[in-house]
Amino acid sequence: MICIVDYGVGNIQAFLNLFKRLGVEARRADTSDALADAVRLVLPGVGHFDHAMQRLNDSGMRPKLEELVLGAQVPVVGICVGMQMLAQGSDEGILPGLNWVPGRVRAFATQPKSADLPMPHMGWNSLQPCAGSKLFSKGFEDAPEFYFLHSYFFDAQDKQDVAATANYGLDFDAVVSRGHIHGVQCHPEKSHHWGEQFLKNFVEL
Amino acid sequence: MLRPRIIPCLLVHRGGLVKTQAFKDPKYVGDPINAVRIFNEKEADELMVLDIDATANKVEPDFSLIVKLAAECRMPLCYGGGVTTSEQAARIVDMGVEKVAVSAAAINNPSLLTEMAAAVGRQSVVAVLDVRKRSGLFAKGYEVCTHNGKISYKLDPLALAKQLQDVGAGEIVVNSVDRDGQMQGYDLEMAMQFKQHLKVPFTFLGGAGSLEHLNELVSKLGVVGAAAGSLFVFKGKYRAVLINYPTPEQKKLLCQNALKN
Lengths: 205, 261
Prior knowledge:
heterodimer; A: about 200 residues; Rossmann fold; 8-stranded mixed beta sheet; 3-stranded mixed beta sheet; 5 helices; B: about 260 residues; alpha/beta; TIM Barrel; 10 helices; 14 strands; globular
């Protein structure tokens, strides 16, 4: 079962709709018990980093998630702030992140190349998949475009973990993959056929 | 590269979709959910749905409609109409809506935007300003209005836009009342005034009647939101109802022209 982690932050329904269209069974999971049979995990997230971390910490699901992801090696994809939560921490807040992918979340506003651009980074931008990324191995013959809506970005410590980059003043790490742990800054659930293909590839990993 | 967004703007009135002219004479153009399905198929960049009854009738947003819209919508969705509290905004975001738009409530109480930004993040907070030419014998310049044009304000529209940006709006949408439904082209001078002075993403609405009008806007302003109502729901000079959207090739050409800017 694919479980969409519902800790009160993010668009669960959009993922359920998308998996239904793909003909893949998926379920909303808001307790540790509901996560028990997960073979894939989707960790959504929107809004403030600390708010999202706090809600996840308070949800009671974090120990079970760590058991599944770090113990049983269940593939997971964090989406938007859900990706940022994979990091060690964020310039947006003070709470520690999950620390599943080494890196830190930084503000575009503090980067000389992007400081003068309209903020948030909002709209459709092209992705440059890195060679060998399994998430982009099928169905991305046309230059992929994804919907972005964020002011902070993931800065992976180990650039081997970068699966795709995008450019907003500077090139930033838009998709990361560290083994079975993945994160995507843009919104595949709102990115038409490109987003569908991305999640299809994740399911088929 | 980030590119311009081409955004259909749908108006909800008495449960159906309508299109107005200069904010008057709503003409029924169809069912909202059906329209969302068509824009899904056409892979629209984003959708804006504005309930034009809620604020005027002093009622809450129609949450049952928003749930249905969000469930159906496969592109980013911006909802506006009747939102007066950050709790309502959070509830709408939880339903799967990316952005919540406010106008009258934010103009009367700008701190609402600060509260909304704290609740849902400023990337999901949109301020909409309905702007028109001042009327009267010696009137000059533009004014902001709300409640479908019934209430007008003395505030300078650009100063107000900047204030709303500073207190929490992550996007400013300016709607040109005089051009609404006219399909004769955007007020490019007005659009340029706002674009030059704003630091958040900017979307302009009102007047587009052809792809050439979209092209004029993005060629002049670059990466902005180009929104339109009539253009995407009517076909031909008799305004026959036909939901339409640029093809991927047409969109590509438009975006290339913007990026030359």
